[in-house]
Structures are given as structure tokens and as C-alpha cells.
Amino acid sequence: MTFKAHLFGSYDNAINFMGRKTDRPYGHGRATRIIRTDNGVGVRYHNTIVVEYLPNGIRLNSGGYRTMTTKSRINDALDCIPDVGRVFQNRGIWYLMSTVFFDGMIVGYDGRIKGQNKRQSDKRIKEVNKQTKSIKAYTKTIADMIQNGTLPAPSLGDCLYCQFREVKTGSPLGEVIQHDHIALHLEESYIVGSLIKRAIEVYGSMFVKGSISHVWSGQPITDWERDILVRDVPRMVARYIKSQLAIAN
Ligand SMILES: [Zn+2]
Predict the structure, then answer these.
(1) CA of 38 to the centre of ligand 1 (A)
(2) How far does residue 180's CA lie from ligand 1's centre (Å)?
(3) Mean pLDDT throughout 81-109?
(4) Mean pLDDT confidence for 164-178
(5) Å from CA of 181 to ligand 1 middle
(6) From ligand 1's centre to the CA of 186, what distance in Å?
(7) Domain extents in the chain
(8) d(CA 199, CA 194)
(9) How far is the CA of 90 from the centre of ligand 1 (A)?
(10) CA of 182 to the centre of ligand 1 (A)
(11) Cα dihedral sign, 219-223-227-228
């Protein structure tokens, strides 16, 4: 068999490609594999089956990670299905044709999108627009707090989903058990030290990590350091919140 993963285009091709194997390389680095699933064949990127070849079509799932690579894996699969186009992004929202992308959506091998629902699409667009505005206000508040020295440090009084970590992975509980705590923090303009800490942990440079720990332990920092924190920390928090709310960057 000479099929490449992104050239399957049908359930039979995917099944034939796997033969008796349960796991094969995808051909774009090690993070992506092609695996047998209970119902068909999956393209797994990290821990998420982003594309699953089922008898009635391909099932698409970002796992909440609306990243360039996830989009690219999904588009590899869509490229060999006729008349459906590719996933594209506009103002933080992913679309396929005129449908808002949703996790679990199935595209038939004839290019028809199953389970299309205009009302749900409209609702999601409204939600993302509203949340995008809230994120701007939220991170503006953080910038102001850094500027005038009132940024809250992570504390035992913080939201439990932001604060407590899963032992196995070290990830905050809110990332592990999908909870809407972050949407609530936005609504309530509740600035959570533990959330800021996590955003910096994931996206911050060594420099920012060092400076913020000085701020939180009450040590002086230079004006120059403060300027960099004011510029960078709000961006990291925005990026983190978007990743948690499945808003594309
Ligand atoms: Zn929280």
C-alpha cells in the first residue's frame, strides 16, 4: 500500500492502509500517529484523535486545541474529500464551509457535513465575540495591576480549579476536568493569581518567570522589567484563556 495518511479519502483506504497494524507513523514528526480505533482508523495528534475514518465519514475533533497543527492535520484529511473545502479561521472561530466547526462533527466522504445546525453556529459566534471582548478587558486590568503594583499573587484563596493540580500531570484541575470556571472569571472580572501563574508557566520566558516571582515575593524590580511584564503577561494570559475556551489565536 502506498497511501499517505492525507490521501485516504475513504474508510476502505484507511482500513487497507493499516492492514494488521494498530499504529503507524503519519510522516510529519512523531507527535502524529495513525492508529486503529474501535470504530475505524484515527489520526492521533498528541492525545487527541483529530480525524477518525468511520464507515459513514470522517469525524473531526480538535480536543479543544484550536492550533495551527491541529487545523493542518484536519485539513490534510479534508483535502481528499470533494466539495467541502478546508477549515479556516476568522476572528478566533473555525469554520468549515459556512458551518462553525464543532468537535465531533462528521463529514461524509461525499463532502456533506452532518449535524449542521445554524442556531448552534450563531450562538457560538456570539459567545466567542463576547468572550474575546471580555478577555481584552480582563488582560487590560492585569496590565494596570502590574503597573501600579497590585497584581494578586497565587494564593490558597484562589479558585480551586485554577489552584489545585492533578498529581499525575501537574496540570490545574480546570484543564483536566473541563469546567467553565474561566468563563466565569471573565464574567466576574475575577483576577486569579494562580491562573496568571499557569499562563506564565506555559507561555512565559525565563525572564518573565524570574521577574514575576520577584513581584510576587515583594522584591523590587526595575522600571524596565515592569514595562516588559506589562507588555507580555497580559498577552500570555489572553493566549492561555483562549486555549482553554477553544478560541483560536
Ligand atoms: Zn479558576
Answers:
(1) 35
(2) 8
(3) 92
(4) 90
(5) 5
(6) 10
(7) 5-116, 121-244
(8) 9
(9) 27
(10) 5
(11) negative
Tell me, in angstroms, the distance from the centre of ligand 1 to residue 177's CA: 12
pLDDT at 51 exceeding the cut of 50: yes
Q: How far is the CA of 171 from the centre of ligand 1 (A)?
A: 12
Cα separation, 46 vs 65, in Å, equals 11
Report the separation in Å between the CA atom of 41 and the middle of ligand 1, taken as the mean of its atom positions.
36
Instruction: Report how far ligand 1's centroid is from the alpha carbon of 45 (Å).
Output: 27
What secondary structure does DSSP assign to the chain, as a single string? Answer: ----GGG--SHHHHHHHHTT-SEEE-SS-SSEEEEE-SSSEEEEETTEEEEEEETTEEEE--TT---HHHHHHHHHHHTTSTT---EEEETTEEEETTEEP-TTEEE-TTSPEES--HHHHHHHHHHHHHHHHHHHHHHHHHHHHHHTT-PPPP-TTS-HHHH-B-TTT--BHHHHTT-THHHHHHHHT---HHHHHHHHHHH--HHHHHHHHHHHTT----HHHHHHHHHHHHHHHHHHHHHHTT---
Q: How far is the CA of 201 from the centre of ligand 1 (A)?
A: 16
What angle (nearest 5°) sits at the alpha carbon of residue 48, between those of residues 51 and 237?
120
Tens of pLDDT, residues 26-35: 886 789 999 9
Count CB-CB contacts under 10 A for residue 81.
19
> Is residue 6 scored above 60 in pLDDT?
no
